[in-house]
Amino acid sequence: MAQSARNSTDDAPKQTAGLNEIIVTAQHRTENLQEVPIAVAAVTADTLSKAGINETNALSQVIPAVNFQRSGASGLFFVRGVGTTNASVGDEGSNAFYVDGVYIPDLAGTVTQFNNIERIEVLKGPQGTLFGRNAFGGLIHIITKEPGDYLKAQGEAGYANYETVHGKLYVGGPITDNLSMDIALTGYNQSKGWGRNLTLDRDIKKMKYWGARSKLVWRPTDTVKITLAADYYDMDDNTAIGWSIDEDFPGRGFTGPVYSVGSLDTAANDYSLTQLENWGVSGTIEADLGPVSLTSISSVRDSTNDSDFDVDAGPLPWLRIAFTSGSRAYQQELRLASNSTDPISWQVGAFYLRSEVYNQSTFSGLGLSPLSALYIDASLDTDSYAGFGEVSYKITPTTTLTGGLRYTKDIRKLGGGQSPIVGTTMLPQIPTTGKISYGKFTWRAAIRQEITDTVSAYASYNRGFKAGTYSLQSPANAPVEPQYINAYEIGVKSELLDRRLRLNASAFHYDISNYQIRSAALSNLGSAVLLNAASVKVDGIDVEFEAAPVENLRIFGGFTWLDSRFDNFGAPGSEYQAPFIYPLPAVCDAPGTADPGSTTGTPTGGFLTCLGDASGFQTPGSPDFTASMGMSLTVPVRETGELRFNLLGSYNSGFPFESDGTLRQKKYALLNGSIAYWLNEHWGVEVWGKNLTNTKYFQQKISTGLGATTARAAPATYGVTVKFDY
Fold it and tell me: What was the pLDDT predicted at 3?
């Protein structure tokens, strides 16, 4: 997945026989990927476009170590099996998400479509020293294009099945000798849904999206660069919350099948929809001060989410949740780094985040009887302070030691309360307030050894931490404790066969304590109840490769093998008990065991929750094996034209959505492909298809006391796109 050439000749990656040098910023420096003692997957916009990957929810198809799930407006990243199943407003996830050095704390901000990106870097394993803030299992970093020294214009427009139209436009270039600017526009409108609501007789599973991003780059002197960036996007979407009743578990009040197995239809009596608005502004100052460089990043981000969804997905009004939530985050980071890297390089920095989150929810339906509704008005304010430093030293010309330390102080304050509603009368509010505070050290130690000019090995130890938090959907519940990770890794990076093959591999072991998970089974309201699993152990192997066996042919791929299991979750004497669900009618008959209950007759709908021992169970979102392989072939046609053939296949062995493993994603494989004809270097037309085998798989499955509901992912989609590049 070689990085495409940059605008400036001085910055262009070196051509090394068949493969280009890949440049990354995984250590806040511009470095060759092969020289960084971290497992990093770097994917360019060109590779993503050819593979048919246009949004974050498909990133896992090209990076096997990543698993992405949707839950309402939120996106949940799992990296090497480490992630969070909680998508409630206020929680920040266990894998950090960045855009151009700016941390995106709101999980709704991870759901985005790609346009003006330069590349995406996925840093695998804890990044608690340099990035810190919730980079517990890893980091996803989107780096966007920057306007260069000449005018650049790219765009596309297309039409696809389900009456879908989409378009992208990017224009960037100089305004004066030292000032440049760009703008990127994205639009997507799916008019026909993947399925229908048979109760309401209307389409479901469709989305409308548009967004804009712009950068202004000013170089007042040869040593100072100032970048101002702004973005805005708006989305109306029910692809992730147009829930259906699970095919294997009937819901309470469900009177019979109204759709066939594998259908995307639903019988919900309410129409589910998420309306999301996001915007952000940031300013970055980079100054070369001679022996050192100073970097300052300031930003403000805002998100508003109006959602209304039918939790039970059945034709009777058992449970409906309507909520308005929002977040505002301010952050400031300062870094001072040495310009010299031989024999020693260093950097120090400070980080501050102020996050203000609110959630106003109304729960209504027969499932709340004798209440007619419950209103929750909760807020969570976070102040996070951190100081960090890292030093690398070459003890020999081929051996480099790296050490880093970070201290993070988090203060979180919960406010608001909940008000029962009887009939049309709202009873006095029951206050729910609280405060938690944690100060923790995280660190990193690594050694890198060059074996030859094109082969190196590394070993590292990383300590990570994720702060405790409250659930703003269940604010009366106690907060979860912080979770911790000790990560051990060894890896090899190589470029072989006269640099026509790049092969990188790593093996790792994680010890995780106080693992934070979400359980809807513990709440008959279908809301998020957060709890800690005592410990988790993860062992795995990562392999990635890229090959250029002949001119105009690129082959890339990799695999991730995982063994991610609860080491202690509900064993005798354990502080934490695991929730298990059993279809009603059922009884809890063996407390504390790995099978603490049983179903006692023909399922009538709904679940009984029993507490037991899930030690040894596979953790949510962690498939045992994932793999992908892609191919890109260019064939010249006449003097100026060419045909471009692209294929991408991916495989997932399956995983549980919840801790007891009852609701699972079975193994599945996906296939994307495209054929493009470019008349010349400026104009082309592409015919493409995604999920060509129409594989059935899920974005989410969730259990409540009412039953189990599912959100199926996209079926086969195909279309034609016209593109230009000047």
Answer: 36
